[in-house]
Amino acid sequence: MLEFQRLQTRLTAYLRDPGNAPAPDGIEARRLKIYRELFYNNIEGFLTTAFPVLHQIMATDQWHALVRDFYARHQSSDPLFHGLAQEFLRYLEEERGAVPGDPPFLQELAHYEWVELALSIAEDEITPALADIDGDLLDGAPVISPLAWTLAYEYPVHRIGPDFLPEVPGETPTYLVVYRNRQDEVKFTEINAVTARLIELIESAPPVKGREHLAQIAAELGADAPGIITAGHDMLLGLRAREVILGTRR
């Protein structure tokens, strides 16, 4: 490397991990402190905004230790600032490992908070061409919004806060749909396993009638098909009211 490249490499290594990387020669300590704090505070401030609940439930020292470890260790591949949240999530899932004192739900809560940010900036749009909003949801093929994500967690992440910090997973998985409506508001609704299965069928199967999806669920449950179809119709209507389902395929 050329001399200026060597200086840049030493400087960035020091800024990322001043406890383990020596400061480059010839730069005033006061100036180094300004850059060190400026860079770190930018990263920490954005992560606080992107993961407000996680920041709120962790002790101050614990939160800063987490952010500094991410700042020092993780090699980001996303040049965009809003991609930092996804890079932080990747660090938690692939690099963080088991650290004493970390909440057991750390990764799941971070993922749930990241989803809200990801949906808020997603480029997909809800347009009339996607579905007939007044279509018959039983005799037509329902269409799931491209801005609706079905999620399953071991912990009830949507309830976690300073007054609720579960130490063990729930007895059953927590199913959520996080979605962005036509007013560009990001919302969530808790659903049960049957609703989650219905959404999965609509998204993964070739376009078929809502009635057929519900009949398949009845067969899987060993339940009475007419009863499941009746209850499922209400389920479909509720999802359309929330704009999780947009209508039926045109």
Q: What's the Cα radius of gyration?
A: 24 Å
Structurally, the number of domains stands at 2
Helix content: 40-55%
Which percent range describes the beta-strand content? 5-15%
CATH class of the largest domain: Alpha Beta
Oligomeric form of this entry? single chain
Beta strand count: 5
CATH architectural name of the largest domain: Alpha-Beta Complex
Order of helices and strands: HHHHHHEEEEHHHE
**N-C termini distance:** 60 Å
Largest sheet report: 3 strands, antiparallel
Estimate the mean pLDDT confidence.
92
**CATH topology description of the largest domain:** Outer Surface Protein A, domain 3
Low-confidence spans = none
The structure class reads mainly alpha
Task: Give the number of helices.
Answer: 9
Envelope shape: elongated
> Which strand order spans the largest sheet, edge to edge or round the barrel?
2-3-4
Question: How would you characterize the overall build of this protein?
Answer:
It is a single chain. Helix 2 crosses helix 4. The chain is built from nine helices and five strands. The protein has two domains: 3-102, Orthogonal Bundle (DNA polymerase, domain 1); 128-248, Outer Surface Protein A, domain 3 (Alpha-Beta Complex), CATH 3.90.930.50. It is 50% helix and 10% strand. The mean pLDDT is 92. It is elongated. With 250 residues, it is mostly helical.
